[in-house]
Amino acid sequence: MSTLTIQPNRLAEANLAIDLHEVAKTYRGKVQALRGINMQVVRGEIFGLLGPNGAGKSTLVKILMTVIRPSRCTGTMLGMPVGHKATLGRVGYLPEHHRFAEYLTGAQVIDFYGAMANVPRRERRRRTGELLELVGMTAWARKRVKSYSKGMRQRIGVAQALINDPDLVLLDEPTDGVDPVGRRDIRNILARIKEDGRTVFINSHLLSELEMVCDRVAILVQGKVSSQGTIDELTRDQQRYDIEVGVSGNVDRTVDESTVRALPVQWIGDGQPLLMGPSGNDNAMVKRVGWRGSLRTGEAVEANGPFIRVASTDAQVVQPIIDALRSRGVVIKSVRPHRPSLEDLFMKAVTDPTSGEVLAPGAAPPPNVSKKGANP
Asked: Is 107 exposed, middle or buried, given 0-12, 13-18 or 19+ CB atoms closer than 10 A?
């Protein structure tokens, strides 16, 4: 039988809404859905949980809501052990693939869930009107759910998750099946929830949505957290400045060798050769495709085609290069800071570094099965 490990006094940091350690879940057939989750969610933030299909995202949310019993779980939610019944009353929850009784109106759905959460009737009536206005459904309050679109049902779902005035809101795929206008509106709703001082935990595979609203994210891969933090923290080693050069008429050009050598950079050798043709062919062509080096302050620099890339987030660092280019009459088309997107982080997390292939869907691959990936 599975067990729930409880350490009531473990949480020392009062600012953590969720503090999980070594959360595991093994289903029948020894399928390891979760393989030791360690995760922290700060109070008052919007936290995004992302990962490919089958990574264990919904399983983790259901463990937090006691829908699924974990094989092992040490941690707290709102300062109390995971599964503490009274604490669940301070949590709002929108499950994935939820279904509301279609004969009820939107207002009745919200009131019904408020009653289930023991919200007094007078309070329910007041909050139902406020929440309908918040999610933009006041005009549809007396219409039955069967007449609602998918986006309208999601809006009502968010509203019912707030009827008990929760401190923590867990939303499992809140924008699933919602059109771009609806997704924008839900993002605005989430911002309002955060402004009220609540913590929002979102489980989603829509990376662009999470990138726009989340303060921090965790990437779940095959039942384990591969990384977590702000996007700036997760991409700090990959951020850079891109300097693009050109000539009049917007015609791109390659930075010529004399210009490259005039830059205040210590170049490595004469650039990287690229073998054009079959390996071992004596007639193959060798062509220089780039220059690598570093500034005196240590930042890596690469020149390739019309771009000069400087591995730094400090605008002052690129000024000597810009000055050198301008002194030689080189036209600078743009200078742009570059930061990998959440999609870039995600693809890196789900790619096997040894084979370069995308990891197979699911939590942990069963024994004696190839790890050859498929697009999740």
From this structure: buried
Provide the whole-model pTM: 0.78
- pLDDT grade for 284, boundaries at 50, 70 and 90: low
Alpha helices in the chain (DSSP H): 57-64, 85-88, 106-116, 121-134, 150-162, 180-195, 207-213, 231-235, 257-262, 315-327, 342-349
Separation between Cα atoms, residue 363 and residue 366, nearest integer Å: 9
Q: How confident is the model at residue 246 (pLDDT cuts 50, 70, 90)?
A: confident
CATH numeric code, 16-90+166-235: 3.40.50.300
Burial of residue 63 (CB within 10 Å: 0-12, 13-18, 19+) is buried
Residue 319 pLDDT greater than 90, yes or no: yes
Distance CA 105, CA 146 (A): 9
Give me the residues paired with residue 80 across strands: 77
Is residue 286 pLDDT above 70, yes or no? no
- Please give the sequence-ordered ranges of beta strands (E in DSSP) within the chain, or none if there are none: 16-27, 31-42, 46-50, 72-77, 80-81, 91-94, 168-172, 199-203, 216-221, 224-229, 240-247, 251-252, 266-267, 273-276, 285-288, 291-294, 300-304, 307-310, 331-338
Q: Cα separation of 52 and 242, whole Å?
A: 31
**Domain segments of the chain as ranges:** 16-90+166-235, 240-338
- Give 46-70 pLDDT, tens digit per residue: 999 988 878 888 899 999 999 999 9
In angstroms, rounded to a whole number, what is the distance separating the alpha carbons of residues 109 and 106?
5
Tell me which residue has tokens 């919007």: 46
Contacts of 106 (CB under 8 A, 6+ apart): 132, 137, 140, 141, 142, 143, 145, 148, 152, 156, 159
Q: Is the dihedral of CA 212, 375, 98, 20 positive or negative?
A: negative
Instruction: Write the CB contacts of 266 (distance below 8 Å, at least 6 apart in sequence).
Output: 293, 294, 295, 296
Q: At what angle do helices 150-162 and 106-116 cross, to 10 degrees?
A: 30
Cα separation, 337 vs 315, in Å, equals 9
